[in-house]
Amino acid sequence: MSIKPRKVAVVGTGLVGSSCAFSLVNQGVCEEVLMIDINEERALGEAMDLTHAVEYLPQRTKIYKSSYDQCGDVSAVIIAAGAPPKYGQTRLDTLEISARICTSIVEPIMKSGFNGCFIIVSNPVDIITYHVWKLSGLPRNQVMGTGTAIDSARFKTFISEYLDIDPRSIQGYAMGEHGDSQMVPWSHVYVGGKPFLKIMEQNPDTYGKINLDEIVSRVTKSGWDIVHRKGTTYYGIASAAVAVIKAIFHDEYKIMPASVILDGEYNEYNVATGVPAIISADGVKDIVEIEMTEDELYRFKKSNQVIREYIARLGY
């Protein structure tokens, strides 16, 4: 009897990619992790280090240096290679070099016979997700980016600090670009099933004084606050990427924010953007269309237009 192992390839073994690999191994998400990097010695070193951790983890995972031509039977590929923005830049400023890097990655992976799911972490993630979708020729359900998954986690964390509640008891999403134009549909933020706006209304002297725009601004700048302190972010985004893969491998039908290709949803076309999506063994099983207020919808569409303008720079 032969049982097919679940394999994940991590392309780009810097701090983000290696953190993704550690999260995969630590949570026992798959049986094999392929480490791929243009710097083969770095990929080998990370694979060796992770292998030495298996003794103290709940499940054995094989981790090894690999190459694009070995991705034919891989179930998912995490793309974490790219150019981090320099001080004073935005994620959008790294587009051209990140797009070139992704082109050099996707083409040989597709030649290997790969037919799994791409999970994009590289920034600017929404534009790169669209780029990978076009390059790969895969159905749109098999290509997704982490998008506003990490922004949603940050936003829920900040709300939880005000309310002194576990952030996992808060439901809500940051949507649109994983960047400066992102927005939060506050009309769909709930705490234990109760609308957050209603909580503010009923507690004018405490929660009623919370500045919603200030929270969104804080979420938008949060990544940079970390970068200025430690150089880059990796634990949070790695956890988000692996949550997507877990939902795929376990066929969870889990609703979570991700950057996905829209084709009529929200009356949007030709864009990859952060929206709540149902993730299952099919990849993006469906896209959840929430009913936003007129102002929220305006902000969401404005953010998508920013993404679309940068997608056009790649010739699409």
Descriptive notes:
The chain is α/β, with parallel strands linked by helices. The protein folds into 2 domains: 7-145, 3-Layer(aba) Sandwich (Rossmann fold); 149-312, Lactate dehydrogenase/glycoside hydrolase, family 4, C-terminal (L-2-Hydroxyisocaproate Dehydrogenase, Chain A, domain 2, Alpha-Beta Complex), CATH 3.90.110.10. It has helices at residues 15-26, 40-51, 95-111, 125-136, 149-163, 196-202, 212-230, 235-249, 294-312; strands at residues 7-11, 32-36, 62-65, 76-79, 117-120, 143-145, 170-171, 190-191, 194-195, 254-263, 269-280, 283-287. A 6-stranded parallel sheet has the order 3-2-1-4-5-6, with helices on both faces. Helix 3 packs parallel to helix 4 (125-136) and helix 4 crosses helix 9. The termini are far apart. The relative contact order is 0.13. It catalyses: (S)-lactate + NAD(+) = pyruvate + NADH + H(+). Belongs to the LDH/MDH superfamily. LDH family. It is found in: Cytoplasm.
How are the SSEs ordered, and which strands pair?
Blueprint: E1 7-11, H1 15-26, E2 32-36, H2 40-51, E3 62-65, E4 76-79, H3 95-111, E5 117-120, H4 125-136, E6 143-145, H5 149-163, E7 170-171, E8 190-191, E9 194-195, H6 196-202, H7 212-230, H8 235-249, E10 254-263, E11 269-280, E12 283-287, H9 294-312
Helix pairs in contact: 1-8, 3-4, 4-9, 5-7
